[in-house]
Structure to design on (612 residues):
């Protein structure tokens, strides 16, 4: 059974008098332990799909199931708790809280758990270690480079050991070197820790690191999933 | 507790703004506590007075004297067990900036009627035997650096001239409403200096039973109703209350100013909270993505507003509570026993809670209801 099951999803937005159909009938499966890149032009529905999987948005019709739980049927309160347990989200612009140190930013998802302060500290240390920023724990975001900020954001996304990692253009604001570092890190998380990763990207080089590439255009999968070079 | 660090971090985002907001709340509640304490102190003064003491004044007003001859007639009434009299003097010391009450009394009878005025027996005796002597409240020692046995000279404002008194005794009042900054001297000396013997400013009448007060007061006033100086008699509490009533409008004004100040600060605090929440729209969306629930975010913003309001309240109310006793404030002598009452602190704390609710509610609701996708679209 697939980890992420998207069934007959119809999604539309109302903008003033105009209705915009993003997905008309999308069906898609994403397996556990996969590393999937979603590609497509702006407005093709990549980020909307990510938001639907994360439970940040709801389909107008159809169902979104993650790990056997029907995300599209949950209440707002249930969704918040579910996200805290199962989703690790990484943004293009990092979105670290500027008033918190790297350590405190990474700790945020763990505040929602029942872990003790000591247990939280251990997990944060491991997460920062995995992304290679153990020595930057006390730095504030303004004291980090873009690549370091994004790696901190990835540490925040993995610290609670989520079921799925969702990344929206994670290399969009990084230079080439930092992009490679982040993509290498994601590959490592997928291979060594068997993390299920779904990444939205415009960058073909970034997509090549994924095992599977999906192309979206105007809300439709325009070709069947194909295996990327790294996944072969 | 684990979330409080987040609250503190957010408050530290714009330190100056947070400090100014706290300072505004502190100032508002300090003013509120101060103004309300004027009102409560006056109200407390109106409660002063032994239930067994009546005060007889000239019916026309306090500034009009009564014949001293009234004394014996009052004393002869059934139920009257003691009598004394006093006269407002209104002298000033030095440049007059430090006002204090001073009046002439029939010393022996006055001290008999006021056991609240406590001083060493030898000082009391010295005063009773010294025609130009005076006793003073212990606060005047502190205010002017006077010493026992020293001569002090007051300038008469109503009764002109320099009036020199020897300090024979220093008393400490057991009831703060008596006033610890009063100078009391002999009525005999007063009569002698002004050359107008036989007058009293007011009489203090001790009665056998408080329940007889209305009847005795009526008897006194009836006795002088058709004389050249009709009287008005009431209990000492009524006498004090009449002063408080004169302050009635001031009391209303003070309450109104107090509320206006609090309301103005409410607007400032609410504005600061709104700005703070608006600036963090993106961060709130990120926290929701991480898994923070609407309810938790609502609580965090409310706690943030509460931290500002309650810290300000603690500084403002605590400051008022500690400051006034430390500087022995008594409103230039008009507010003896001035203190910030517990009820004022409780009301102030409730005002702070109200401030928290009023300033935090809208931003907290906004944070809770923020649609994540739209907010993230703005940030990304």
């Amino acid at each position: 059974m697939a980890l992420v099951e998207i069934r007959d999803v119809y999604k539309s937005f109302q903008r003033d008098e105009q209705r915009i159909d993003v997905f008309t009938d999308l069906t898609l499966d994403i397996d556990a332990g996969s590393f999937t890149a979603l590609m497509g032009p702006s407005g093709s529905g990549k980020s909307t799909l990510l938001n639907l999987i994360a439970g940040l948005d709801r389909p107008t019709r159809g169902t979104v199931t993650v790990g056997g739980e029907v995300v599209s049927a949950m209440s707002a309160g249930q969704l918040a708790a579910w996200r805290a347990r199962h989703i690790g989200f990484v943004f293009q612009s990092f979105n670290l809280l500027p008033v918190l140190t790297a350590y405190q930013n990474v700790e945020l998802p763990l505040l929602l758990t029942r872990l003790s302060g000591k247990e939280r500290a251990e997990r944060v240390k491991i997460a920062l270690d995995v992304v290679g920023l153990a020595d930057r724990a006390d730095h504030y975001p303004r004291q980090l480079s873009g690549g370091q900020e994004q790696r901190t954001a990835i540490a925040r996304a993995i610290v609670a050991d989520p079921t799925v990692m969702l990344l929206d253009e994670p290399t969009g604001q990084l230079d080439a070197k930092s992009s490679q570092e982040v993509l290498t890190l994601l590959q490592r998380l997928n291979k060594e820790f068997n993390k299920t990763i779904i990444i939205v990207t415009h960058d073909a080089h970034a997509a090549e690191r994924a095992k599977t590439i999906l192309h979206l255009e105007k809300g439709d999968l325009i070709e069947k999933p194909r295996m990327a070079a790294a996944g072969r | 507790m684990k979330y409080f660090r987040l609250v503190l971090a957010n408050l530290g985002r714009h330190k100056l703004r947070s400090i100014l907001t706290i300072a505004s709340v502190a100032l508002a509640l300090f003013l509120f506590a101060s103004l309300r304490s004027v009102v409560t102190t006056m109200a407390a003064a109106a409660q002063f007075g032994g239930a067994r003491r009546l005060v007889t004044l000239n019916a026309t007003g306090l500034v009009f004297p009564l014949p001293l001859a009234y004394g014996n007639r009052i004393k002869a009434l059934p139920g009257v067990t003691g009598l004394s009299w006093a006269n407002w003097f209104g002298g000033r010391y030095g440049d007059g900036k430090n006002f204090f009450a001073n009046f002439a009394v029939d010393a022996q009878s006055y001290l008999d009627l006021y056991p609240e005025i406590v001083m060493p027996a030898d000082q009391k005796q010295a005063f009773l035997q010294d025609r130009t002597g005076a006793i003073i409240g212990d606060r005047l020692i502190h205010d002017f650096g006077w010493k026992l046995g020293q001569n002090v000279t007051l300038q008469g404002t109503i009764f002109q001239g320099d009036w020199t008194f020897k300090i024979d005794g220093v008393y400490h009042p057991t009831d703060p409403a008596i006033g610890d900054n009063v100078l009391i001297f002999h009525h005999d000396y007063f009569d002698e200096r002004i050359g107008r013997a036989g007058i009293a400013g007011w009489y203090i009448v001790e009665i056998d039973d408080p329940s007889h007060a209305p009847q005795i007061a009526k008897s006194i006033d009836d006795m002088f109703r058709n004389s050249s100086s009709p009287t008005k008699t009431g209990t000492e509490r009524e006498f004090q209350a009449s002063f408080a009533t004169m302050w009635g409008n001031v009391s209303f004004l003070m309450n109104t100013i107090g509320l206006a100040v609090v309301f103005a600060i409410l607007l400032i605090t609410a504005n600061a909270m709104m700005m703070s929440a608006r600036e963090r729209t993106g961060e709130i969306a990120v926290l929701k993505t991480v898994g923070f629930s609407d309810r938790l975010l609502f609580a965090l913003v409310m706690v943030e507003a509460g931290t500002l309001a309650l810290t300000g309240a603690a500084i403002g109310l605590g400051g008022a509570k500690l400051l006034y006793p430390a500087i022995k404030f008594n409103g230039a002598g008009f507010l003896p026993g001035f203190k910030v009452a517990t009820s004022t602190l409780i009301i102030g704390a409730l005002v702070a809670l109200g401030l928290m609710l009023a300033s935090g509610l809208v931003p907290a609701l906004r944070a809770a209801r923020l649609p994540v996708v739209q907010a993230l679209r703005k940030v990304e």
Q: What stands out?
A: The longest strand of chain B covers residues 162-173. Chain B touches chain A through 26 residues (CB under 8 Å).
